[in-house]
Amino acid sequence: MSMDLDKILLKFRTESQKIKHKDQIEELRIKYLGRKSGILPRITEKIPQLPPAQKGGVGTQVKKIRAEIEDTLTKKISEGAVNHKSFPQDVTIPGQQRNIGSLHPITQVIEEVKDIFHSLGFTWVDGPEVESDEYNFQKLNMPPDHPARDTQQTYYIDDKILLRTHTSNIQVRYLEKNKPPVRILAPGRAYRRDMPDATHLPFFYQIEGLLIDDRSSMTDLLGSLDFFVKRFFGKNTKIRVYGHNFPYTEPSIEIEVYHPKKGWLEILGAGMVHPKVLQNAQIDPKKYRGWAFGMGPDRLVMLKYGIDDLRILYNNSLSFLNQF
Ligand code: DAH
């Protein structure tokens, strides 16, 4: 038996030296190690029937040979050279171009917004997408059955846990742990039970902004947003501001930017943070004040690149995405 094994090894060595093409590596592997009819596995099968005195020796020898075969074949694969010997390389053939991806336009816009607000002293944080009713609604001055919840219907995990309807859930969460002065952005996904159309989807992105200190005013909010819009869209961009109602700001506003095809398009809601929100985060509203906004980067992308249907941003079409 051990004579046979020596012969097998010698034979393998000669054969492996002749390998010229990578297919032959696989052929040899199957011939010697293949599970069904490989030479070594067939010998291994027979070991239990050998006289006890031989079993151990043969076992060890088979193991050694297997290791050598595996080693040799792996080396051949990594040399890769085998392929080139039979197909010499033509160095004049142009190289293969690699497909390198790029950041999704929404990601690019979020990065740009972060950059612009960074110049105003803002940094950014993350918030949970699976959120409690408490932080998404109650702590923002929207108790159960508050009518403002009607425009923000969402997906409930149970009575208390839901998919956040806006990034505003970060406000009280952050203020509970960080005392003023505060200047943060919180970009991320939000969810609503909206029917998909050209300007709505059941999931979308938002960027929350929150500034708390002891002196900021509505004028600072308007000035900062005007600064942002001009930096983002160009210095001749005009915004339209009008009153609104959010339970977590007082007063509240909405801001629109002009889209050549769609007319004025709302890009964000904002306002002076409601004293109750500050109280809910154990911050004294007599000492501190501030403003907040929630903007839609999806809408910013539409305006910036003249896109008139939001859905194209999410259907993974390469001919669209390759333009960015
Ligand atoms: N959460 C609002 C929405 O999703 C947007 C918003 C309005 C955010 C006012 C704010 C704010 O922070 O102060 O429509």
Observed structural traits:
324 residues; seven-stranded mixed beta sheet; 12 helices; 40% helix; binds 3,4-dihydroxyphenylalanine
Protein architecture, described:
The chain has 324 residues and is of the alpha+beta class. 40% of the residues lie in helices and 20% in strands. The protein contains 12 helices and 9 strands. It has a 7-stranded mixed beta sheet, with helices on both faces. A two-stranded antiparallel ribbon has the order 2-3. A hairpin with a 4-residue loop joins strand 6 and strand 7 (249-259). It is elongated, with a radius of gyration of 33 Å. The mean pLDDT is 92. The structure holds 3,4-dihydroxyphenylalanine.
For the biggest β-sheet, the strand order reads 1-4-5-9-8-7-6
Number of strands: 9
| Share in helix | 40-55%
Q: Give the ordered list of helices and strands.
A: HHHHHHEEHEHEEHEEEHEHH
Structural class: alpha+beta
